[in-house]
Amino acid sequence: MNNKNNLTFYRINRSTKTSIPFFEIGVKAGFxxxxxxxxxxxxxxxxxxxxxxxxxxxxxxxxxxxxxxGIDDGDLLVVDRSMEPHNGKIAVCYIDGExxxxxxxxxxxxxxxxxxxxxxxxxKVTEENEFLIWGIVIHSIKSF
Length: 144
Description:
It is an enzyme of class 2 (transferase). With 144 residues, the protein is mainly beta. The chain has a domain at 51-141: Umud Fragment, subunit A, CATH 2.10.109.10. It has 1 helix and 10 strands; from the N terminus they run E-E-E-H-E-E-E-E-E-E-E. It has one helix spanning 45-49; strands at residues 6-10, 20-23, 40-43, 56-62, 76-80, 90-95, 98-106, 111-114, 123-125, 131-141.
């Protein structure tokens, strides 16, 4: 199988403002408590998800190579280009003319791009590759 993901990139538009109700108490995954009080207040998802607007963008995943890491086909990713790449981070990478989404593994001598699906092969980055870590994934937004 091909290691490459097709990613669709989107710019951030912070000019829009939509107030969405937000319940601070959280949602119980067990038994509900009818006695709990709640306070409804607005939340701005731009402020919640985007910490560094000039270096942040969205992209949509097209492929299943990261499904074992919880990133599925169709997920919308929030990617920050200002973050430093570190071992274990999930990154949008540009390698040999194509974008791919992989987990970074750095050992003493090499950088590896690891898929989150056993049907895909890890990519060993060598000096012969044209390679750039484009940005680090900070959020994955799912639709159900």
